[in-house]
Amino acid sequence: MGLSTTHLIIFLVIIVLIFGTKKLKNIGADLGGAVKSFKEGMKDGTESTPQAAPPVAPAQQVSASAAAAKDTIDVEAKTKS
């Protein structure tokens, strides 16, 4: 129940008659260009991944926020007095 060589030849002749050789050539060139662009995009995507910053330890975050809290001035508290 598979396709024989004769069936494939008839199928290709019908496609050429419907679309024409110029249209098929353009479709092939467009498809090849799309595949090439896709491959280049995949290659660029793997090479240009930015390096993530190293994670900050929780102890460093607490000490940094505590130091910032000492330097912070509450403006509303001054205006209420």
Can you put this structure into words, describing what you see?
The chain has helices spanning about 5-20, 20-45, 60-70, 75-80. With about 80 residues, it is an all-alpha fold. The chain is rod-shaped.
Would you spell out the secondary-structure blueprint of this structure?
Elements: H1 5-19, H2 21-47, H3 58-71, H4 75-80
Brief overview:
The chain is mainly alpha-helical and 81 residues long. The protein has helices at 5-19, 21-47, 58-71, 75-80.
Question: Helix tally?
Answer: 4
Shape: rod-shaped
Counted beta strands: 0
Major sheet attributes? none
Could you report the average pLDDT, rounded to the nearest whole number?
76
**Which percent range fits the helix content?**
over 70%
The end-to-end span amounts to: 93 Å
Taken in chain order, the helices and strands follow as HHHH
Structural class call reads mainly alpha
Uncertain stretches = none
Tell me the fraction of residues in β-strands, as a range: under 5%
C-alpha Rg, in Å? 33 Å
Structure keywords:
81 residues; mainly alpha
